[in-house]
Amino acid sequence: MSNGNLSQSVTEKRNESNEDRSQAYEPCALDDIARVRELDRKLEAEADLKQRLEALRREVVTIVGNMSTETSESMQPTAQNPTLNLHEQLNLAFRRVALLKAETGRLERQLRLLSGDGKG
Prior knowledge:
This protein is an all-alpha fold. 88% of the residues lie in helices and 0% in strands.
């Protein structure tokens, strides 16, 4: 083999080797990209769930605070606060809090599943 042919043969072998390597890395790179996208989606979903949970918690605090204020106001002897109306308002508030707690529990389970705890 002459020097030129040897050089060309070595170059061809290198090119083939590089092509083999790039083909071997492509599925891994695609898997990595898919994994990163999935993680990004999960992080966005987790952030959204955390925001919704915080909003629910604030709403529960507001409702409980309003119930406390309404209860103390109703204990004042005035004709403007009928007791029956207060009971209805408290019942509605308790139901709303129960619904919010159920929603909070559901969101927390989703968050645990997204986080990978597996205890959903």
